[in-house]
Amino acid sequence: xxxxxxxxxxxxxxxxPRRGVLLKWMRSFPLLALLRLSLISIAPVAMxxxxxxxxxxxxxxxxxxxAVFTDAKITIxxxxxxxxxxxxxxxxxxxxxxxxxGAPASEPSEIRILxxxxxxxxxxxxxxxxxxxxxVNNIRRDFPPNDQDAIAILLDTFHDRRSGYTFSTTPxxxxxxxxxxxxxxxxxxxxxxVWYSESKIHENDWTAEIAIPFKTLRFSQQDVxxxxxxxxxxxxxxxxxxxxxxxxxxxxxxxxxxxxxxLVGLEGVKPGNNLYIKPYVLAGVRQLDSQPAxxxxxxxxxxxxxxGVAPGMTLxxxxxxxxxxxxxxxxxxxxxxxxxxFPEKREFFLENAGLFQAGFDGLQRQEVxxxxxxxxxLAGGTPIPILGGARLSGRAGKNAVGFMNIQTRSEAAFAxxxxxVARFRRDILSNSTVGAIVLNRRSSLPGDSSQTYGVDAxxxxxxxxxxxxxxxxxxxxxxxxxxxxGKFEAEWQSNLWRLYGSYADIQKNxxxxxxxxxxxxxxxxxxxxxxxxHFERGMPLAxxxxxxxxxxxxxxxxxxxxxxxxxxxxxxxxxLEFQDGGTFSYTYYRKFDRLTRIxxxxxxxxxxxxxxxxxxxxxxxxxxxxxLSASVNLRRQDFYTGTQTIWTWGGIxxxxxxxxxxxxxxxGEADLREGSFTTNLANLRTDYSFNPRLSLSALxxxxxxxxxVSSNLRFRYIHHPLSDFYVVYNDQRDTNFDxxxxxxxxxxxxxxxx
Length: 754
Fold this sequence. Notes:
5% of the residues lie in helices and 52% in strands. By secondary structure, the protein is mainly β. The protein has a domain at 62-264: Immunoglobulin-like, CATH 2.60.40. It has a 24-stranded antiparallel barrel. Strands 1, 3, 6, 7, 8, 9, 12, 13 and 14 form a nine-stranded mixed beta sheet that branches.
């Protein structure tokens, strides 16, 4: 019997009762009342075809694969021609996560594992009936996920069902790796490890060989190892995602670490001395119209040192740290009264970054961060020299520890400062944590210091229900009282539903000098309900639509005196993902906004008062499987005393997996009683990869708000894993081309491992 037909026949008889239960359950939640009209038309189709749950029960009966010891030489060339591979029993029987959850994979895959005293070896075999359909859009290091055909391997090296690594490669040899913690809830895609891979495309398949040195990984000193393992294959040409252990559709591979299989057979392997030394030398020239006194040539050197003081604990030391090779920030235009958030991109601060986060990585993450590493060594985007620093981070049993101390030098108007972060977290129950964090900033100026103290708890009460709490206080000599912050939030989700609610109280003097606060002196409330039916094969509209999302979102901001500052509602709005990979979205907005004082905006003065607005946003993005993909978005809304229209256009041209060009242009127009203004923001990004280790990239940006054109060109040659040679050219000039700041930098790094 066809397993797909059998699955459909087995779910149809219960469609009526399930629909009745759903509608009765909806009526019992006031949060969902506004969803009823939007859901009632699609619930009969979606619920009649709702697949049986795919969540594997967490038991000791897990899928298992054995690693086989070999003393034969394994050549990493992508050709599985060594006789040693025949001794390893392959992992087979992959099932679909998308599009037909639980169905057998349309193309078979096999994974085999060998090891010797130095390396873990992984052989990948992916059958492909027509290799001409294989899509590879990018081969540079850390290629975008889900953008091309790829295979990913998850390793839970401590077998704690909470943390680990993923290693991904493509049919053309691209590499992507990342580190994750907290049951996959916190992931760091910027982590880089030393490993080797090569791939080959054949007549009816593609193959890959991977070698991961044991000294790249952290694991226990036990003679017999037991690791968690999962394998994941993505086929971009048909949008199919397969996994070895069945993976719920709502989870990415890291989030499913708790139900991963077991890797057995590893014996007598050690993580090594775990000592890495990475010196660098740098030379550069600058011509700075804004700071002519700093035009002297630049010559400097420095070093990073990494030492594994224990199986799960790493000490990092840095001296005369330099971030000249870091990619430039993507510019933004601010239409709000609050500061913009920019993510961290500097390598030193990215490893184990999730450990230093306190609280839930949820929807309000960019409202309050107790620790935001961009506050170290940067001031308004201007670099401040870092003299040196130390970081101790990792795990010891059920305890996770993070300690960081950084010292900066004085620079122009910026005084020297010392920054300390201490973080402790302990695993409790099956998948929950409690923790504490202390942060201290002290500058060389008298009385210029501040401290932040916080405690947090993350409780995974069931596989789908998470509750989080965070409480923190700051202390500054100038500010006393009303300096606390508290947050409580909860999220429940299944394949079909997601419910989220949060409450945060940010007192007006809460000011973490090592963190980020977008709106102090407010209480923030958010309620969100999301219905996301998946259209299985054979269902109505399934030939066109793969997934739909219908969301209702309420947000409130309440001032410290009890008055409502903002009240916004969006929805019911929806997003459609088509079978070809394209998406369409529509959103309706209603908002109340109270200005308590005059708001200066683009040279205009918006008077204090109460403002009510309505608006909508509509957008379409075409499939990225094609040579040319494009997107267009329109947002139109009432805007204080007038109206605002924002158009965003984008396009990606991929001439090959070596060359891609991306253009994005945003135009904003506001017509207000006080006057009118227009803003333009454009960025052009081009990437060319000669091979996975040699690449050239260019980012050119224009911002009418700052009246600047900036360029960032980066040449990178990975001459050895984690060892680079960079040539970086930066150019920033005003739109009249009267003044410009230019720099050309050469940087060489070399990793020495012991």
